[in-house]
Specification:
Helix content: under 10%
Shape: globular
Number of helices: 0
Number of strands: 32
Strand content: over 45%
Radius of gyration: 19 Å
Length: 352
């Protein structure tokens, strides 16, 4: 397919604003709700908070001594949550750059931290345990241990329900009400990553066996898509809840959930091919309110797509000088895309 020249041509709709660095592999990015700050975590532990306009460091946070796994900014607030490999959840005051509170994660390896959209509650996962906290750091609930390591978790849009993904099942709880699941959807396999559609009707998970599973939640009806080259960790919904972008190799596959009365079942996905054939996708991210999709890969490229563009879906790109492109995050206003690399580079790119 035709390829864009990614280095300065006028048709490239992804323009570098600044580039900075963290000590090593960038594994998590999170924007402040007002879009003025960007937090970037290095896998070795340190977390840097950058001025999102200039790229200058505002705060250097120690993170987690044995490695930071994820950072997440409180919606509508000033707290930054981080989790890592030291049995701790840390809450940081981003106004002062000081640690506000340290919480016990419940396991030595904590990898997931997800705020409720209201900013009132934080869910964290460590091994088989999930704990839910208030924004002030008070424990609301510890949910029952799962059958295997909790690989991912997400709040169901429009509710206070939390879906956990672990071996053999996706379990949904109301952690404010109790510890019994409100729905248990069993599936024999090892899921890796979870994504709810914005309308809360469907969630999808990518799996160890190179498949993607769709669940129509209210109906408890499921579909499975296969044929991926590698295990699938990359999932992203568009804001209309119609399209799901998936990784699992070098090609972006986009499933149309309204392809027929049966949803995507029996349909062929749109295939977006621009990354090197021997590479693998590492991240996918749709704008929160727009139609642009970004993909990152082990080939170091960040590619910008407009899948519905009849003149060609590939509309921009950027390439890190070294290492893989490891993580992506859109700014709250959808105008800027943050990207991190495996060598510690952090870039902010203007889209449009």
């Amino acid at each position: 397919m035709p390829r864009l020249n990614l280095f300065g041509k006028s048709e490239n709709k992804l323009r570098p604003a600044w580039q900075a660095a963290v000590p090593d592999h960038t594994n998590s990015l999170s924007w402040s709700p007002d879009g003025k700050l960007l937090a970037a975590a290095a896998v070795s532990g340190p977390v840097t908070v950058f001025d999102a306009n200039t790229g200058k460091p505002v705060h250097q946070l120690k993170g987690h001594g044995f490695g930071t796994a994820a950072v997440a900014w409180q919606p509508g607030g000033t707290l930054l949550a981080s989790v890592g490999q030291d049995n701790s959840v840390r809450l940081w005051d981003t106004l002062s750059g000081q640690e506000a509170k340290t919480l016990e994660a419940g396991g030595s390896w904590s990898e997931k931290a997800v705020w409720h959209p209201s900013g009132q509650w934080l869910a964290t996962a460590a091994a088989k345990k999930v704990r839910v906290w208030t924004a002030g750091g008070e424990l609301v609930r510890e949910l029952p241990p799962q059958a295997g390591t909790v690989m991912d978790l997400a709040w169901r849009p429009g509710t206070n329900h939390l879906t956990l993904l672990a071996y053999g099942a996706a379990s949904t709880y109301d952690p404010l009400a109790g510890t019994e699941p409100v729905k248990l959807l069993a599936w024999k396999g090892s899921p890796l990553a979870l994504a709810w559609s914005p309308d809360g009707r469907i969630f999808a998970h990518g799996n160890q066996d190179s498949t993607v599973h769709f669940w129509y939640y209210d109906e408890s009806h499921d579909l499975q898509m296969w044929g991926y080259r590698t295990k699938v960790r990359e999932l992203a919904w568009d804001h209309t809840s119609r399209y799901l972008a998936t990784g699992g190799g070098p090609v972006v596959c986009i499933w149309d959930t309204r392809a027929s009365s049966k949803g995507p079942e029996g349909s062929k996905p749109q295939m977006l091919d621009a990354h090197d054939a021997e590479s693998s996708l590492t991240a996918l991210a749709y704008q929160a309110r727009g139609f642009l999709l970004a993909s990152a890969s082990t080939d170091g490229q960040v590619v910008l797509w407009q899948p519905t563009n009849a003149r060609g879906p590939q509309v921009g790109g950027f390439k890190f000088a070294e290492g893989e492109a490891s993580v992506l995050a859109w700014s709250p206003d959808d105008k800027s895309l943050a990207a991190g690399s495996g060598t510690g580079a952090v870039a902010v790119l203007r889209a449009g």
